[in-house]
Amino acid sequence: MTFVAKPRVHHPRLPVNEIGLTRRDYEGSVSTLCAGCGHDSVSAAIVQATSELSIPPHRFAKVSGIGCSSKTPSYFLNKSHGFNSVHGRMPSVMTGANLANRDLHCIGVSGDGDSASIGLGQFSHIVRRRINMLYIVDNNGTYGLTKGQFSATNDKGSTSKKGVPNLYEPIDLVTMALQLGASFVARSFSGDKKQLIPLIQAGLKHKGMAFIDVISPCVAFNNHSGSTKSYEYIRENSGSAMAADYVANAQEITADYEPGTKEDVNMPDGSVLRLSKLDASYDPHDRVGALSYVMRQQEKGDVVTGLLYVDPEASDCHEIMNTCATPLNALNEAELCPGSDALAAINQSMR
Predict the structure, then answer these.
(1) Which of 172, 171, 151, 173 is CA-nearest to residue 161?
(2) Structural domain spans, the chain
(3) How confident is the prediction for the chain on average, in pLDDT?
């Protein structure tokens, strides 16, 4: 096993932010994901976004679940607070972290399987409770850690690695977030850092639930029966002493196109991802209009990217619950445990 570590030294003239830190201070360990994975582009966007905001790394809390996407917090903000939770349960852990210390900037990273399958109930409730956090989903429509089965966000009619079509309608987390009351909803593409980085920064500065669905291509398992470059095709048409998975190096996929235009992105498997960027006339303050627009574009096969909705008068869980303004770790024992009389009064008030 080869261990790859980042060099401890760096160029002495690296640009510094307002608090004297470089981009390197916001990085993490070396990624172990497939070369060309869109998730690494999302991690790089988080690194750039947080360093440009000039927030000290220890003021961040990052939490994830299980999956390729949930490995990524290891690759950014290595000096922050972090917790890798169990499958689909990132929202519960992040809720506790935010309620315990409202002064932290909370980043939850999840995947389409982690949030739209086993964690769907957790996702829906953390949105409706308006936890003050940035919730990022790295959405590739497949289970990359378990060899490429369909995830719940995979489009109906698309094919698996073995060429089997998906027979079910997809779960769209963006429309769910809009319906459940998220006060900041956006969608982006991992290869469009000009759009993604400002969205991450805006989500981190937003007061309330900020959700970003990032289309993040899987270079290993987006194969289909019509591709002569697929792993199954090669195995069926060549002699081999054994069957072993090989993930070839793939070049990072990027996109750069103007607002109000569309862009077709060719994927490694031969398929095409059709992106549609919002134009300047779009009204991001209309929740119902945003929901209608997203659904109309989905019928056309377009993936709408950009800031879809933001509530200019957003509130968060602390305002709703009237929580203590001081983080729990800053309270003394008498404040945390006021005694049996206080507890009896609280219980009486709930009867």
Answers:
(1) 151
(2) 23-317
(3) 84
